[in-house]
Amino acid sequence: MPELPEVETVLRGITPHVIGQEITDIVVRRPALRWPIPQHLSPILCGEKITAIVRRGKYLIFQFKPGSLILHLGMSGRLCVMPEIIPHQKHDHVDICLSNNTCLRFTDPRRFGALLWTPDDPNHHHLIASIGPEPLSTLFNTAYFLKKTRKRSAPIKTFIMDSKVVAGVGNIYAAEALFLAGIKPQKAAGKLSLTECETLVAAIKKVLRHAIKKGGTTLKDYVNANGAPGYFRIELKVYGRGGEPCVQCGVLLVESRMGQRSTVYCGVCQR
DNA sequence: AGTGCGGCCTGTCCGC
DNA sequence: TGCGGACAGGCCGCAC
């Protein structure tokens, strides 16, 4: 599933191919995603150029003079630049057609994704406005995190997956960051010491940076004929490894559920 | 206000 | 082989 590093990789992959391109058509074949895709996009955007693409958390924001498209890949979404003559397949819901006869094709089998339009500053859109700081920005730091966690009883794993606290930390990287920081996922956020806050903030940044670096080296081809590239997988130390030995101490990793999410951790290395 | 859960989806895997 | 059911999960929006 696309996590923040994958979304960042998509952004970097497609940007050089679509910036400055003029929209020639927007084909919406299946509007029923998480929210209905607006049907009137083509008349608004035809002839307009994509001026910039930015990422906020796991949202990609395509900016035009009249407004912005806000895109979320959800669980199974993919975005790829390809020649528009390539026949579309079952889950290819949207084509954003460009003047060089390529298109940005949005594919999403599970349809948890979203494509929305706003004529206003996208940062004021309700989905974007409430998002916390970018994890890789200096706004996300020990002082901020310490303050945010105080008096909070929610488990730290749930807490760091809250997009209001920090943008775009999903289940996989939450588990990996907590392992790296040596903190048990169930620990109440408010019980973290200053040092633990510092360690966890650093760990979140580290796992995300590492994954983005991996994505940059493993996925270069965002322009191809057969559709989207597969999502990359960094070597995960805990996620998906329940019952297997801890890479640090050899004790079998514990798999439990927090909310509806599978949670894997080491009962020895994480306290 | 903070917390936790329901619901949206479909491909994949498992057991019968 | 075919089928049903469990599972995967981001994240909004609601209920307590």
What report would you give on this structure?
The chain is an alpha+beta fold and 271 residues long. Helix content is 27%, strand content 20%. The chain is built from 7 helices and 10 strands. The strands form 3 sheets. The chain has a 4-stranded antiparallel sheet with strand order 1-6-7-5. Strand 6 (92-98) and strand 7 form a beta hairpin. Helix 6 crosses helix 7. The longest helix has 25 residues, at 194-218. It is elongated. The two termini are 28 Å apart. The model is unreliable at 224-228 (pLDDT under 50). The structure holds a DNA duplex (16 and 16 nucleotides).
Structural class: alpha+beta
Strand % is 15-25%
**Helical fraction:** 25-40%
Biggest sheet record: 4 strands, antiparallel
Would you report the number of β strands?
A: 10
User: What's the tally of helices?
Assistant: 7
- Strand order, biggest sheet? 1-6-7-5
Using only CA atoms, what is the Rg?
Answer: 20 Å
Low-confidence segments: 224-228
Supply the key terms:
four-stranded antiparallel β-sheet; 7 helices; 271 residues; single chain; alpha+beta; 10 strands; 27% helix; DNA-binding; elongated
Q: Secondary-structure map with pairings?
A:
Layout: H1 4-18, E1 23-28, H2 41-45, E2 52-56, E3 59-63, E4 68-72, E5 78-83, E6 92-98, E7 102-107, E8 114-118, H3 126-129, H4 142-149, H5 156-160, H6 171-181, H7 194-218, E9 254-258, E10 261-265
Antiparallel strand pairs: 1-6, 2-3, 3-4, 4-8, 5-7, 6-7, 9-10
Helix pairs in contact: 1-7, 4-7, 6-7
This protein binds a DNA duplex (16 and 16 nucleotides) through loops.
